Amino acid sequence: MMSTYNDYIQEIEERKQQGLHPKPIDGADLLHEMINQIKDPGNPNRADSLHFFIYNTLPGTTSAAGVKAKFLKEIITGEAIVEEIPPAYAFELLSHMKGGPSIGVLLDLALGDDAVHARHAAQVLKTQVFLYDADIERLKKAFQEGNAIARDVLESYAKAEFFTQLPEVAEEIKVVTFIAGEGDISTDLLSPGNQAHSRSDRELHGKCMISTSAQEEIKALQAKHPDASVMLIAEKGTMGVGSSRMSGVNNVALWTGKQASPYVPFVNIAPIVAGTNGISPIFLTTVDVTGGIGIDLKNWVKKVGPDGQVVRDEKGETILEEVYSVATGTVLTINTKTKKLYQGDKELIDIAKAFTPQKMEFIRAGGSYAIVFGKKIQTVAAKILGVEATTVFAPAKEISVEGQGLTAVEKIFNRNAVGVTSDKVLHAGSDVRVEVNIVGSQDTTGLMTAQELESMAATVISPIVDGAYQSGCHTASVWDKKAQANIPRLMKFMNDFGLITARDPKGHYPAMTDVIHKVLNDITVDEWAIIIGGDSHTRMSKGVAFGADSGTVALALATGEASMPIPESVKVTFKGEMKDYMDFRDVVHATQAQMLKQFAGENVFQGRIIEVHIGTLPADQAFTFTDWTAEMKAKASICISEDDTLIESLEIAKGRIQIMIDKGMDNEKQVLQGLINKADKRIAEIKSGEKPALTPDADAKYYAEVVVDLDMIAEPMIADPDVHNDDVSKRYTHDTIRELSYYAGEKKVDLGFVGSCMVHKGDLKIVSQMLKNLEEQQGKVEFRAPLVVAAPTYNIIDELTEEGDWEILQRYSGFEFSDILPKSIARTTYENMMYLERPGCNLCMGNQEKAAKGDTVLATSTRLFQGRVVEDAERKKGESLLASTPVVVLSAVLGRIPNMEEYRTAVKGIDLTTFAPPVKQLVG
């Protein structure tokens, strides 16, 4: 007889060999078998089953949680007797199950006939916040029928006792420092992309954080300072840039935080992180999700001379001076009342931004979810009772400046804001709850999003979300055993939840491994939309999009809302004329280089909205700019488009959505057709003049304004990881932008990559046109380095096929992907030829395909983080330089970066992605 329990025991033995504990239980069949063993006093597995039942079962809406809640109810009512779990303990276990079936059981008992059980169940219910409409409806109906318990629970909710009766945040928090690295710390260090498959197995994934030696050092600090929390620090840099935020924060919390519940393994909260230049905005939001603390240390500052001017070294770079030391092992004290950081009695810095009233609530409640759901329950309960909700939570921060116009993001937030008390317009700095229009979940974080949805007891997408998509792009390259085990399960969960999914769980339409950002860009059909996506490159050229952790994505899916301050904006405009041999990607890189020069090395984009007045570029091409803003460390970006350009972009989007419908991807609610209808409505509004394209007000206030001079861009621009910079903090940042001539036509290139979200149809046409050009000039094309080409979407391949370009690419390639026979093993070696790979992220993600260790890769992608596209080898460091499509193609053919003469010859007559600034300034 098959036994799920025996399989589980075998898995436990296998995990022991990896130094791992038993995996948490989420399946009903296994827990049913364990319960049968618990009920049998003579069963040899009874003690272990009892332990697993109590301490190792996942809460929320997992099928195991449903079984656990039902059995606990049986114990409370006396239907089942377990000596080790008396009824009072059963109630305690229910209190840690975070909604879903456990709420159903508590309501059954609270509204039942047994007065003792009802009172006890009511006391537990008062501590719970993850209630949904059906749960509230039961309480409301019972209250209206005169049930005293229902009234008691609702009155408790209206007073927010679930929050007010929590312990206060400690006045002093002792920390001991641990320098995780110098310079910007990518989340790839905390949660490597090549280990993405294990992210939903929290203990296993925790073993990949930083390094084994770092983990040992953290444990040693904890042993030496048992009364202190370890604070992870980015010395001379920003903490948490890049993607993989939730898994990164989960890992930090696993090693340095505290257990959220004694009955839920490996779910830790309250991590403390810091950076000389603060915390990346998206990473900081994720820290809030877990009730953690993020501190801007400012422990290194620019050196200033007697004349008041910034002092620079012989290379012209700013010299930094250390204000105070945070070397590993330094003991510091955070005071949450004075909001200062101390070393002994010495005050080091004001850290008030880490302890705003809202953040203090997150810390006290153990995370932001509890506050979001709590506020909602309080409001609903007060409405049912017909009373005013007790003022408990910090009021929303509402900033309105009389006579000041609105930036584009301020306009969008004002339109989408909910729960605002004032009728005045809100400006930057206001804390706002906003409705979310479009949500995206990606495949290497999707399983965590599913876990978050289960933990908050959500079962269906919020009806106020216009559309949501679950991608398959990050695991598109290789259909290996890990992908086969994880992806179908993820797609079924999300499809059942109400998302449009890249893969059909029923197999009715072919897998669509299109890059998530491209799909979200297409299904965003209103430039007034707010988009939340589980990837840092959720940067749309329509609307305003925020990359988010898997938890914030789950919250947006479940509630249709997100909470955040309205960010400040930086206005970017253009002047001059783009040279015909340059590509728009060069303008993107030059924007960052010119901005840093204009502001003496200060990145004014960091943590802010880039409002780019791009005007004349359709959505696909404009996306090249907005996508890069993630590397500029911006919070988000907004494209200001002319009316005709926006209409063109919306027509393209409609066509792409129709393709998805034709493939059979729409669901019962016809979400995709609804998006086409919305696009038609928006186009009609623009054409009629009823509602022109979004523009800022002429008197809007900006943090800064950057004017990009196109005349100054005379050579292709390359972002260089600068792996040999003497200053470690300046390695692997996106701030080193160099002109082509810097390399003097000599730097060897081991592999070229054209792909990821940074390319569009025009880029693939450039590849085919360049190959034809080179053949005409040289007689034939020989690759001296491999060239990997991955189209971002299937529709691009379809269009290229119709126009004849795909046939040219096939002719020059030595490998072409096959959907019928997908690769089952990741490529580890490359020949000097062109590879046409499956649409998706490919090398940019670094979790499946990678370049050979130590290679110098020239790519169109976005990531130059250490180890992402290419890992280091003993012989040399891996390098991932970023450039335009024509530079990458020519470099693969030559086996080195070309000189200017070679470049101009190769692109002669080719229609590159060009750009002309709008004739007039676009303002409302």
Automatic annotation (TrEMBL):
InterPro entries membership: Acnase/IPM_dHydase_lsu_aba_1/3 (IPR015931), Acoase/IPM_deHydtase_lsu_aba (IPR001030), Aconitase/3IPM_dehydase_swvl (IPR015928), Aconitase/IPM_isomerase (IPR050926), Aconitase_4Fe-4S_dom (IPR036008), Aconitase_B_HEAT-like_dom (IPR015933), Aconitase_B_HEAT-like_dom_sf (IPR036288), Aconitase_B_swivel (IPR015929)
Top-level taxon: Bacteria
Repeat is among the record's keywords: no
Pfam families, A to Z: Aconitase (PF00330), Aconitase_2_N (PF06434), Aconitase_B_N (PF11791)
Domain Aconitase B swivel: 177-406
This protein's record includes keyword Metal-binding: yes
Keywords of this entry: Iron, Iron-sulfur, Metal-binding
Residue stretches making up the Aconitase/3-isopropylmalate dehydratase large subunit alpha/beta/alpha domain: 411-895
SUPFAM superfamilies membership: Aconitase B, N-terminal domain (SSF74778), Aconitase iron-sulfur domain (SSF53732), LeuD/IlvD-like (SSF52016)
Ranges of residues in domain Aconitase B HEAT-like: 7-163
PANTHER family documented for this protein: ACONITATE HYDRATASE B
NCBIfam families: PRK09238.1 (NF006690)
The protein's name: Aconitate hydratase
Organism annotation: Sphingobacterium griseoflavum
Gene (UniProt): acnB
